[in-house]
Every structure is written in structure tokens, then in C-alpha cells.
Amino acid sequence: MVLNFKAMDKIIEGKTKVIYANPDDPKTVYMLFKNDITAGDGAKHDVIEGKALVDWKTNRDIFEYLNSKGVRTHYVESPEEKVSLVKKLDFKINLEVVTRRVAAGSILQWGGMEEGKRFDPLVTQFHYKDDPLHDPMLDDGYVDYIIRAKEGGEVFAEMRRMNDEIFHVLEEAFARFSIQLVDFKLEYGLINGEVTLIDEVTGGSFRLWPYAKKNPNLHQENILGELDAQGRLDKDTYRQGEDLSQVRSKFEQIARITERF
Ligand SMILES: Nc1ncnc2c1ncn2[C@@H]1O[C@H](COP(=O)(O)OP(=O)(O)OP(=O)(O)O)[C@@H](O)[C@H]1O
Ligand SMILES: [Mg+2]
Asked: What's the mean pLDDT in 208-219?
């Protein structure tokens, strides 16, 4: 199939993807991946030749895997390179839902959190999506209040449940390749009245740290010493200013792994 996007209506263009209306079906849209990469809520921006293709592959393999595990996602199929067909959102929930197994990144600024601390059970937090405000975290007490106060509360409870479910599925999948899923952020929307995983899951969605040794002991208070944080495969490589060919090579390594899910 050759899709002619010039003849289609562009619904929205974001930082990393463009969404087109599907002329043959109002219930689905095409999601086109771009070569752009951004960090710091858009403050840092580059274009990496080949990134769209590699993100599209990773996203395809992760969503097909999640669908096969019975997770409710928007993903339908990938009709051609760099393009996915997804169910159209009825309502976008303006939150990033972050789940963490290991303390890394922004959480280290909170209350003297030690890098490498292992969370069991997983920790899930909601961030309000707003670049100028730097996606502030919602107060847990407030989220619990929303969940108890019926109106919309079941949506929050369902996102929490799904993030947990998806984390366990992907953590186990990456573990087969001796890689720890450290954390991830996912996005949700309502499709046919149901909370559904939307958007993309790619190298920019998570932290992935390879095991530092053959049989790491991952059931300790702090597992930093068991993992090779310097060998990270994810977008932190870009955030930390590594050159773009290095960033691309890390993203290619992720795609080679998710291909085998
Ligand atoms: N199933 C879907 N139906 C319709 N639109 C979708 C769907 N999944 C994702 N989108 C939208 O695609 C748009 C483009 O995504 P992109 O990630 O490039 O945006 P962005 O600039 O990063 O903004 P955001 O911070 O919202 O992700 C977003 O507005 C996103 O909400
Ligand atoms: Mg985005």
C-alpha cells in the first residue's frame, strides 16, 4: 500500500509525530513518525536522520506485543514504514502517567531520593502535560481524592492499573535481554468510552539500563551497583548531550531488542 499524505487532512502536528485523518475510515487516524528529537519540554531540539524509522519499528513491536498481551491500546497496524494506523481518540487525557521501578532522573530532586533505589511495589505518578510549566507532578493526595470522588475517578484508577500492568509486561520482556526497565511515561485517552493507551512507546518513553553482571541481585533496597547506568540505551543519552550518531545507535539497539519481543 502506498499512502498519499498530501491528499489527506492533517489533524495535528506535534514534536515527534504528525496525525492525518484516514479518508477511508473516520474511526482511525494515521500516525506519521518524524526525525525530530526534543528534550527539556522542547527546549533542546535536533533532527536525527533515520530516527523516524527506528522509532516506528520500536513502537510497532511494543504495541503489537502489548496488544497480544490483552492490553487496551489505540494501535491497529503499521501499513508502511514510518506510519501506524491507530484508533482515533475521542478525548485526550492531558496527563503523563509515570511508573518507576528504580529511582532515576527527576525523582532524585525530591526529598533526598537516592539514585538506584528499588521501588516494590512500583511507584506511579501523574504529571500534568504543560511544557511551559515543565509537566508538574500532581499531588498524590489530590489524585486519591479524585479517585474516591466518583466523578472521573474511575479514569484515574484505570490509568494507574494499566500503567502497572504494562510496566510488568515490558519489564519482563526487557529482562529476557538482561536489561532493566527503570521507568516509563505513558499517555491515555478515551476511545469508545474506555481508557486506552495512546501515543507512542519509543526510546524517549523510558529508561533502560543493561545489567552490569550476569546474575544481578535485583531484589535489594538499591540496585545501582547491579546495573550499568552508563550503558543506558534510552533518551538520557540525548539529554546528557552525547553526539547524535551515538543517540541513533542507542535507539537502533532498542529496536533490535523489541523486534524479538
Ligand atoms: N489515537 C490518537 N488519536 C488522535 N491523536 C493522537 C492519538 N495518539 C496520539 N495523538 C496525538 O498526536 C499528536 C502528536 O504527537 P506528538 O507526540 O508529536 O506531540 P507533542 O508535540 O510531543 O505533544 P505532546 O506533548 O502532547 O506529546 C499529539 O497531540 C497526540 O495527542
Ligand atoms: Mg509527544
From this structure: 97
- Measure 133 CA to ligand 2 centroid, in angstroms: 16
Distance 12 CA to ligand 1 centre (A): 8
**Delimiting residues of CATH 3.30.470.20 domain(s) in the chain:** 91-243
Tell me the C-alpha to C-alpha distance, in Å, between residue 78 and each of 53, 57, 75, 132, 166. 12, 9, 9, 33, 21
Distance, in Å, from the CA atom of 76 to the CA atom of 190, rounded to the nearest integer, reads 16
Average pLDDT, the chain: 95
| Per-residue model confidence (pLDDT) at position 41 | 82
- 91-243 maps to which CATH number? 3.30.470.20
The mean pLDDT of 21-27, rounded to a whole number, is 97
CATH class of the domain defined by 5-87 = alpha beta
> Which of 8, 18, 19, when mutated, tests ligand 1's pocket best, judged by the most ligand atoms within 8 Å of its CB?
19
Task: Look at residue 216 and give its three-state secondary structure.
Answer: coil
Q: Locate CATH 3.30.200.20 in the chain.
A: 5-87
Measured between alpha carbons, how far is 84 from 75 in angstroms, rounded to an integer?
7
**pLDDT tens-place string over residues 106-140:** 999 888 899 999 999 999 999 998 888 888 889 88
Ligand 1 centre to CA of 231 (Å) is 30
pTM for this one? 0.96
Residue 1 has pLDDT above 70, yes or no: no
Mutate to test the pocket of ligand 1, among 8, 10, 17, 98 (most ligand atoms within 8 A of CB): 17
19 lines ligand 1 (CB under 6 A): yes
Q: Is the CB of 86 under 6 A from ligand 1?
A: yes
